[in-house]
């Protein structure tokens, strides 16, 4: 009589859950002190840099066969431009989810945030030490960001049970979603690379992390250092 064997099982998405791929937009145009980014709803709205358009093409190649049922973008054009090649391949019209727009950076919008990071500004150190955005004058609070990101993800999950969706969004939002899913410090997952793919499976009572900052499609020479926000 042969011995009974119990193999290790593979993960399967629970019935009724939404499989959510969080794609950070491609690299956006560089910030210049004499040329602030245009603002949309008070937030910087740069277009993609040439490198970002290449990121978009590579994301499209990676996800073309992923079985997507819907594509979402935010109100900011860098997500729309990043999603465009994939949407064209699949014949899907991206839908807009405003509450997954980037963290509002208050007085540091328009590209100033990048300049402050590059200058090693003390407020940036304080932001990380205190794990909150609103040490930046006028910036969004951690509580407000958490509430809107949670609400948006839960809405999308309710709209897409037993489906897989791609959400083209921003580094701060991906970091917040991961923090909500894991119970980590608010900024623990800040630093997803441009063009990266993270994955959460959302059920009625929990968020399951299945991947963070996947950049395999971007090539072996892709820089390991994350780009600044915006």
From TrEMBL:
It comes from the Bacteria. One of its GO terms (cellular component) is cytoplasm. SMART domains: PGAM. One of its GO terms (molecular function) is phosphatase activity. This is Probable phosphoglycerate mutase. CDD domains: HP_PGM_like. Gene3D superfamilies: Phosphoglycerate mutase-like (3.40.50.1240). Residues 28-54 are annotated as: Disordered.
């Amino acid at each position: 009589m042969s011995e009974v064997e119990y193999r290790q099982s593979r993960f399967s998405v629970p019935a009724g859950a939404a499989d959510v791929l969080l794609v950070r937009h491609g690299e956006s145009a560089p910030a210049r002190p004499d040329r602030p980014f245009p603002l949309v709803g008070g937030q910087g709205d740069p277009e993609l840099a040439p490198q970002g358009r290449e990121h978009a093409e590579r994301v499209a190649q990676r996800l073309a066969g992923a079985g997507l049922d819907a594509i979402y973008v935010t109100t900011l054009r860098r997500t729309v431009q990043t999603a465009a090649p994939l949407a064209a391949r699949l014949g899907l019209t991206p839908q807009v989810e405003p509450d997954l727009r980037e963290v509002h950076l208050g007085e540091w919008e328009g590209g100033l945030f990048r300049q402050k990071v590059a200058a090693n500004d003390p407020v940036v150190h304080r932001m990380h030490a205190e794990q909150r955005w609103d040490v930046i004058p006028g910036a969004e609070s951690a509580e407000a960001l958490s509430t809107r990101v949670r609400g948006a993800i839960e809405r999308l999950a309710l709209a897409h049970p037993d489906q897989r969706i791609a959400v083209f969004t921003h580094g701060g939002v991906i970091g917040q979603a991961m923090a909500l899913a894991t119970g980590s410090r608010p900024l623990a997952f800040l630093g997803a690379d441009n063009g990266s793919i993270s994955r959460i499976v959302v059920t009625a009572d929990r968020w399951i992390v299945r991947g963070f900052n996947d950049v395999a499609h971007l090539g072996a020479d892709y820089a390991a250092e994350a780009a600044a926000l915006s």
